[in-house]
Amino acid sequence: MPTVITDKTDIKSIEEILANFKDNDQVDIYSSEMSPIETAIVFNGLKISNVIVQKENNTILFILNNSTVLQRQISRFKGLTSASLKQLSNFENMGDGVLWPEIPTADTSLKSLIQEELLQKYKLQIA
Q: Cα 76 to the chain's mean position, in Å?
């Protein structure tokens, strides 16, 4: 899938870029005004490759395609604490995020997972 990085953010400019591709082409378009985390994700091709839910351990493992494992407590996700195992297991891994169709408040992005990881690792706080 082609990736286009542009400084354009308006719809008309994006449509002009897309006009250069065939109708059935899938194209990822990113703004050059991406955050450093977004830039790292795109240029390193990071994706969530697997998600493992362990309700009995209150744990979700997000396994990235570079073998990094990001571990989170289920209880840290709004809406997942009271979810059944069936609801927890019903997710869609989009690569750049995970969606729980039955629990939309629990959706998370790769960007937010990495951001949270950095905040924890360096004991930082956002004011």
A: 16
